[in-house]
Amino acid sequence: MIVVSHDRYFLDRLVDRIFEVRDGELRVFEGGYSDYRERQAVQR
Known about the structure:
Blueprint: H1 8-14, E1 17-22, E2 25-30, H2 33-43
C-alpha cells in the first residue's frame, strides 16, 4: 500500500517503512515518520 499524507501522527501509527525519492535516487528508511525525521537530521 502506498500512503501519502501530511498527518505525521497518522504516518507514525500506520507505516513501518518510508521511501524517499530525491535527486533521482530512491532511499528506504525503516520505521515510522518520526524515525525518518531523526535520521534525516543526523545525515545533515
